[in-house]
Design brief:
This protein is of the alpha/beta class. It is 32% helix and 16% strand. The protein is built from 11 helices and 15 strands. Bound molecules: (4S)-2,6-dioxohexahydropyrimidine-4-carboxylic acid and zinc ion.
């Protein structure tokens, strides 16, 4: 969706503290090596989603995955992967607490079973996790939530709003001090819920949910590369997300949900959900904030609110964004496959120009 409102007083170049990505899919093996470089180019740290096959369900698996990521980093990169443990009906409070205490994982991820890619081993009923949630609340370990119910009778466009009423609000009543990140929110309902909740309830917002609505998925024909979960909603929701992201509220921060799939897995009779936006992430956020007349709030959203929520230090380095065209390639190599990036073939208004001189 091209907005035509620009802030003419905006600078042509913007230097901000280096951002972090609080929600990304880096995959594993050959694909990871290439997609990781795109995230590590822009972001200092990222929370790496654990929905591998098999999923990252224990301290030991999280440690192993972290080591593989570090080994696959481009030479000289100081990128820091932060791990999340995938909750199942059988997760053990002691194992989760150990991962947190040892610094192996910063959070746990709740995937309702069958909500999305590789979530079959997820939680079938949050009541199965009560002992784990009770412990997480006590030790201050955040719960990252894929907020969709999965019952067939609930329309896919309503699944996030129903999740708030049926799962999230009751969980916060049962565990009032539990730190929660409502991930990749897509509705005004979720933005309002988080806005009105206590300070330890926050949300991440993706670039694509700020830019596309559900009509975009069908513009001129079906657009598999714009399909992700939670699926984009109607225009009024996109506008609510833009208001939340640019509001300056510390409850909202950056999480790309960059989720690469090989071209054949997307362009298929049953295409996978996921948008690979890592190569263009900061370019997109800069455009959105500029269009909203809020470039001065980009640094808070991208680089300050997340560390404050997680109790982590701010990044010492700075990056430069420039208002000059970036041409996005049609495809990007990943292992033996190719991936179509978000905004493939388009010319973007902002470019990521690397780390800024610290002087
Ligand atoms: O679109 C999505 N893709 N949503 C998710 O929740 C998972 C992700 C993936 O892993 O591909
Ligand atoms: Zn995700």
């Amino acid at each position: 969706m091209a907005e035509q409102r620009f802030d003419d007083t905006a600078p042509a170049s913007l230097v901000i503290r280096q951002p972090d990505d609080w929600h990304v899919h880096l995959r594993d093996g050959a694909m990871m090596t290439q997609v990781l470089a795109h995230t590590a180019r822009q972001f200092a740290r990222a929370i790496v989603m654990p929905n591998l096959t098999p999923p990252v369900t224990t301290t030991q698996l999280a440690n192993g995955y972290r080591e593989r990521i570090l080994a696959a980093l481009p030479p000289g990169s100081t990128f820091e992967p932060l791990m999340a443990i995938y909750l199942t009906d059988h997760s053990q409070p002691d194992d989760i607490a150990e991962a947190f205490a040892r610094g192996v994982a910063v959070a746990c991820k709740l995937y309702p079973a069958h909500a999305t890619t590789n979530s079959a081993a997820g939680v079938t009923d949050i009541r199965h996790c009560h002992a784990v949630l009770e412990r997480m609340e006590r030790i201050g370990m955040p719960l990252l939530v894929h907020g969709e119910v999965t019952r067939r009778e609930v329309d896919i466009f309503d699944r996030e709003a129903v999740f708030i009423d049926e799962v999230l609000a009751p969980a916060l009543r049962d565990f009032p001090a539990l730190k929660v990140v409502f991930e990749h929110i897509t509705t005004a309902d979720a933005a309002n819920f988080v806005r009105d909740a206590p300070a330890h309830v926050a949300a991440t917002i993706t670039p694509h949910h700020l830019e596309i609505n559900r009509t975009s998925l069908f513009e001129g024909g079906i657009r598999p590369h714009l399909y992700c979960l939670p699926v984009a909603k109607r225009e009024s929701h996109r506008l609510a997300l833009r208001r939340a992201a640019t509001s300056g509220s510390a409850k909202f921060f950056l999480g790309t949900d960059s989720a690469p799939h090989a071209i054949g897995a997307k362009e298929s009779a049953c295409g996978c959900a996921g948008i690979f936006n890592a190569p263009v992430a900061m370019e997109c956020y800069a455009s959105v904030f500029e269009e909203e007349g809020a470039l001065g709030r980009l640094e808070g959203f991208a680089s300050e609110h997340g560390p404050a929520f997680y109790g982590l230090p701010l990044n010492p380095r700075r990056i430069r964004l420039e208002r000059r065209a970036m041409e996005v390639p049609a495809t990007i190599a990943a292992g033996d496959a190719r991936i179509v990036p978000y905004h493939a073939g388009a010319s973007l208004r902002w470019s990521f120009a690397g780390l800024a001189d610290q002087a």
